[in-house]
Design brief:
This protein is an alpha+beta fold. It contains seven helices and eleven strands. The strands form three sheets. The protein has a six-stranded antiparallel sheet with strand order 3-4-5-11-6-9, with helices on one face.
């Protein structure tokens, strides 16, 4: 089966929806071509309303972008809302799932890693370090974040404020470009929490993993590679 070339305008909806979905993921046409194995020229013609795609090609495209076919044909899904297109993406994170980075002083489990170009990165954190000497340099990265303590007690150290102690159910919202660190302040061997990091940068997940990987410990049998 091959692509079907049609007059300009006949496939404008498909092209507009593809462009909106691509831009929402922070991808160039070349990156879409690399992820899907489709020709760059074909994708360019589709975006410009000059070409349609057969069903097998649509499956190839949506599979490579980890999206639903409906996103390419539903104007309501692809229409901009307050200047940003709706992607209708979703990802379910089951208990025990996630990309794990473990060091001697903390374990970060990144959730919903099947989605690319996320502007929010959810992390389940287990904090063991009890001092800044153990933890190392304060963390700094783009965006903002919210940390919610789910068990134990957490000491939050920041660059411009005195340390704060958070108990179970307490949370803190902070500017992530400010140096910060989360330490175990309870009697248990570790404290746990959920951290949500946000940024306009499409590579936020990669940035966070690079920072967290600075002190990676040897992998155990139950850990995933970073």
């Amino acid at each position: 089966m091959s692509e079907i070339t049609t007059p300009e305008g006949a496939n404008s909806q498909l092209g507009q929806c593809l462009k909106a979905a691509r831009q929402a993921r922070g991808l160039t046409l070349k990156q879409v071509a690399e992820r899907t194995g489709m020709a760059l020229s074909t994708l360019s013609k589709v975006e410009n309303g000059l070409m349609s795609l057969t069903y097998d090609k649509l499956l190839q495209l949506t599979s490579g972008l980890k999206m639903e076919i409906a996103e390419l044909f539903n104007p309501a899904v692809a229409a901009p809302v307050q200047g940003r297109p709706v992607t209708a993406r979703r990802s379910i994170s089951r208990a025990g799932q996630g990309q794990v980075i473990t060091t001697k002083f903390y374990t970060y489990t990144y959730q919903c890693t099947d989605l690319i170009g996320k502007r929010m990165v959810p992390i389940v954190a287990e904090v063991r370090a009890r001092s800044l000497e153990e933890f190392g340099p304060l963390l700094r990265h783009g965006g903002e974040e919210y940390f919610l303590v789910t068990s134990g007690r957490v000491a939050v150290h920041t660059e411009f404020y005195a340390p704060e102690i958070l108990g179970e159910g307490d949370g803190i919202y902070l500017d992530s470009t400010m140096g910060h660190a989360y330490l175990n302040a309870g009697e248990a061997p570790s404290a746990k929490g959920v951290c949500l990091c946000t940024s306009e940068a499409p590579d936020l997940y990669d940035q966070l993993r690079q920072i967290a990987s600075r002190d990676v410990a040897p992998l155990g049998n139950d850990e995933l590679p970073p």
